[in-house]
Amino acid sequence: MSALNTRLFYLFNTYYNETATPQERDELFQIITSSANDAELTALIHEAWNSLEINEPLFDPTKSLDMLNNILLNKAANDGSAKIRPPDNNRLWLKIGVAAALMVFTGIGAYLIANRQQQQLNKNNVARVSHTHDVLPGGNKAVLTLANGKTITLNSAQNGVLAQQGGASVYKTRNGQLVYGGGQNDAQEQATAMNKVSTPRGGQYQLVLSDGSKVWLNAASSLSFPAVFMGKTRDVEITGEAYFEVAKNPNKPFRVKTNNTTVEVLGTHFNINAYTDEESIKTTLLEGSVKISNSKYASVLKPGQQASLTQTGQIKVIDDPEAEYAIAWKNGVFEFKDAGIETIMRQAARWYDVDVSYQGTIPTREFNGSISRNVKASELMGMLKYAGVNFKIEDKHITVIP
């Protein structure tokens, strides 16, 4: 076996076994996309495929472009945060998926090899546009509006105590969190000291409420809340999207209100997506239990379930075994599962603070995979080109071209 064959076989197997380092993954894809002997490369990958001893039908050629999309999503981020997500995390499908994905580059789908001269893949094997027209990712940006109307720009405010509200101290930590603490006196003032944290498009923020509950706000979102929770319930209100880790207190339920809907919990982890430009309001439960209600319906969620509030006011509950997709944004990742181009572009518009338009017919392809939210807009959009979705970036505007 030649030195190239030996090295490629090693890289292929480390990739398959999920032990490859980011440098080894880069090397593997570099060899695949630049090999001068495509026949030898094809034979070697077929040999590795056969060694998997899978008694299943061969990979469906019609799925090759989808698998290529997953591979490109995998390679989109330098930090290794992007990944292929095999369906249902089943080990058999992992074997088939990884092997078939690499075979896309050879006999089944010679997409890259046949068009190598035209593609000129960059270091990350992701198409990019000129950096003279690009948009940086969002970051920690928010504005705090106090009960007296005073506003504080949190991303530029100094660390330390920012204000006193209802007997509670409001301060910014060194890691950029907004924290409410104290507040045992002046009960009447506490009850009326309502605050609001708002994130712009291209912003996100994390805060800790006076009861210890943690809240992550996504871009173009807001949270209204009292400086100190008084009375029998802990009531807050959101717009946009937020992830909650609620401090347990059986004697004082935590209630989140949005668009005439209330989510009531005692202590749990859940995500609410209530953007007005989405088709429905979605509540995804990761831990504990929540009750969702409006004037017509009420449902109780169990961990791993998602409730959708339709435009008619009906609440639909579905099992969601991959609930982590709903909170990928909180973990700094774009995560797509059977996502249409419009779904992706709505997320892109909010995170990169751009406007989006479509030239001609909107593409109907669906996408699966993940990529870090720390990449520039061109890197997110560039990977879509391999599925036939073209685009151009001009100032703060992205045009999608079929």
From TrEMBL:
Organism: Mucilaginibacter pineti
InterPro entries, A to Z: FecR, FecR_C, Ferrdict_sens_TM
Keywords of the record: Membrane, Transmembrane, Transmembrane helix
Highest taxon above the source species: Bacteria
An MF annotation (GO) of this entry: sigma factor antagonist activity
This protein's record includes keyword Cell division: no
Database matches in Pfam families: FecR, FecR_C
Keyword Membrane included in the entry's annotation: yes
Domain Protein FecR C-terminal: 334-400
Designated name of the protein: FecR family protein
Occurrences of domain FecR protein (ranges): 196-291
